[in-house]
Design brief:
Blueprint: E1 3-7, H1 12-28, E2 31-38, H2 47-67, E3 71-77, H3 81-91, E4 96-100, H4 109-112, H5 115-122, E5 127-130
Helix pairs in contact: 1-2, 3-5
């Protein structure tokens, strides 16, 4: 295993997913790629949204440094988060996706469907869901 993808949205579950991925990466001498897929900046390129994303990525970078695991943060803008995660993983030769079971807006799952569910069902790459 060389690369582990962790979708990061700032939720507690995505941070749990990162911690889990860092543990695997440390044991397998892998690197972690943190992916933030941002829907909102498509419509509003506000400074607060950009600051929030930077804060999420900085936190992930610091956690990775503490565990001595190579980390690369990537930010994508797309309205379909699940599809973007799956496509990114396939095109970047990711070996494992570690995703939190629910994001920061779990109440939206009633209308949009779960991102984690989409990734689990559409990915050809192994997926670990962290609660």
């Amino acid at each position: 295993m060389n690369k582990i993808l962790v979708p990061l949205d700032g939720s507690k579950n995505s941070i749990r997913g990162l911690k889990f991925a860092l543990g695997i990466a440390k044991q397998s001498d892998s690197s972690v790629v943190g992916l933030n897929v941002n829907v909102y900046s498509m419509f509003a390129k506000t400074l607060s949204v950009k600051q929030k994303i930077k804060k999420i990525m900085k936190q992930a970078e610091l956690m990775s440094q503490k565990e001595k695991v190579p980390f690369r943060g990537v930010i994508e803008v797309d309205e379909n988060i699940g599809r973007t995660i799956v496509t990114f993983a396939q095109s970047n030769k990711i070996d494992l996706i570690v995703i939190g079971s629910r994001g920061p807006n779990s109440h939206l799952e009633i209308f949009l469907g779960s991102v984690a569910n989409h990734v689990v069902n559409k990915s050809k790459i192994p997926v670990t869901v962290v609660k």
